[in-house]
Amino acid sequence: MANNNNDIDNPLLKALPPAVDYLSYLTILEYNLTVEQLPILHEILQDTTLTANIGWDLVHLLLPLLPESQSCLQDVARLGNPREVVLKVTELLEALNTSDGHEEEEVDDEEWEAQESLDQSQEDDTQSNEPTTTTTPVTHHDALNATPVQGYDPNARLKPSKVSQFSVLLDMLAILHPRIKTQYPSRFLSTSLQAILPAYAALVTDFDTTEAVLGFIKIFAGSKRPRLPPRKSSTQILTQATQLPSSAPDPEGDKESVAPEETALQKRLLQSFLTFIAEGYMSALPTDDDVPALSWSSRLLEHLHPERRIPGRRTYREAFEKDEDLHQRDSTIGQMLVRLSFLTTPPAC
Asked: What is the reported pTM?
């Protein structure tokens, strides 16, 4: 950790335990944590003992600071107490579903209404002063000292979208679940899946949410089959890339191995979960250039009865081969089928 003169008076470094207890240090973090402090916090969190004690209570502080706080959130997932952090992550996933997912638009509407109100008042003032032929110019001093529009802060930090929060939280779960060493891992898995489903249903229209869910399932489904060819979509979610360092062991881990029936139970949970994900994904697909959803029935009809094709008109097969968005739909369903095949058939030894 850097110890230059600029860090001597940094409150995050001065108050490090044992200078204060863990609870007091969390309070200091809450009042002093900013984007500029994140690199220092990232170094601080390399202390496994400290992160195991405070990591679970940092997630809700770091989430609003995305994307800059992603490395710190990964530190918490790798080095924090996995059982406590899992519960915190599922709690935050449930919070994503407490509103309709349009809080950004609502804020914009409030700012727009405030601006409209100001414009209307200025227009009324102008109309009331119509007999006067001269107007007083607005000086630079007047502009600097003007009363700001209520509810509008030009310097306010934009809140990360719910999609980016969802993706990062699932990325954390993908790190946390393999770290939990218990005889009954299905208990933690079922809690996480119940928190993911409602949040996914609220955000399913965004492609990144489905990509994040499939990445999470891959942790349990395995990856012994050859990789699929690269997809045409250039979409990349926030959680992709970088090989993470090793994770800390579960401080509360059981020495006994997982019961054989637990593996089968986890697979059944994931099978059911993936079924709901597939249903939600396909139900949310919009009509793209007169091509509804996946158009399976139309494509099958073209294949069985080619004589019914209209000459000169693009077929559904051609549309799904050449249109990037439509091709992505087929690719996503293909990934779901690959995950499901791993969950239903034991991998070859």
From this structure: 0.75
